[in-house]
Amino acid sequence: MSYVAEGYNSFETKKSPSGIVRYLPDPKSVISLIQSGKLKEHILLVQGGTTTFLAPALSMGSIGVITMSGAPESHLGILSREFQMPCVMTAYLTGSEARYVTGGNNDAHFAAIIKALDGKKVKLHCEDRETGRVSLLG
Amino acid sequence: MTGLSEQEFLVLNGVHLKKMATAKELASAVGLEVPVVEAVLNAAAGNDLLMVAEGKHLLLQDGTNAVQEYYRTVYGPMRSNDRVLEWYDRFETINEQFIKQVSEWQSTDGDERVQSRMIKTVERLTKNLQELTPLLPRYEIYVARFNASVTRVDQGDKDFVCKPTIDSVHNIWFEFHEDILSVIGRPRDT
């Protein structure tokens, strides 16, 4: 199987959720998704590992998350393990050399990931101890 | 002038920090009676400051704006107070330790030694918090909440370490961190 993206795995799990990727840039987008009643149809893509505004989506039963920065040792990592919700963190595109740089300007890196994943149907693979992976479906 | 009264701020800030909560959870977290909290929440819902989903309250953008405006207006002087800013710098170090310890606690299935180190970190924070309470009296409630949850952990109820749906130590820490960042006007990683 080929993977479009990979990153740190928040925790090992045989759960392998699939859904349409939805990029959530701000609290408003999280509330809008919850109000739509379609939260569980989506894999959530967010920028940071301490994305506090994501908390309502986690409480409402989101099925999986991809972050573009942040480590498993973060608030979001801790919550994903407690909710047993697969979470691929600091994801990067496997077909690109670009990687997240702490303290650097990551705008182009983030934009490329959003362009490659937002709106696509994907599956998360989190059975490996260290690495979480994302494959495209359909 | 901010648009919120102190009581309205306490309740809506509780929603802001918890992200999603019932009136009862909020009353317990902010130290007000449930009917008082319900009255504020109902009025806020009527003014489109918040929404209700499955009995839990979430701030809408106007509600978040009102809470942030209160922080700016009332806590503005704290943002240039060296004592507060130095306190926060020390907190950052403790915060990193705490997050690592909770993660390690999870990965070791609640190892007692890791738990003991984590509880010591929480006790360090509650001790340090007493330096801030003369300036921020409402922070007393964090000390009380931490103490109550640590007591439950000490009694063997491990859910009170970091279960997201109760007043666990990690939840309280998460809320406190968001609160102090708002007081000093620093953004959090998005």
Automatic annotation (TrEMBL), chain A:
InterPro entries reported for this sequence: PEP-util_enz_mobile_dom, Phosphohistidine_dom_sf
Coiled coil: none
Domain PEP-utilising enzyme mobile: 45-91
Listed name of the protein: PEP-utilising enzyme mobile domain-containing protein
Species of origin: Bradyrhizobium iriomotense
From TrEMBL, chain B:
Domain of life: Bacteria
Protein name: Uncharacterized protein
Organism expressing this protein natively: Bradyrhizobium iriomotense
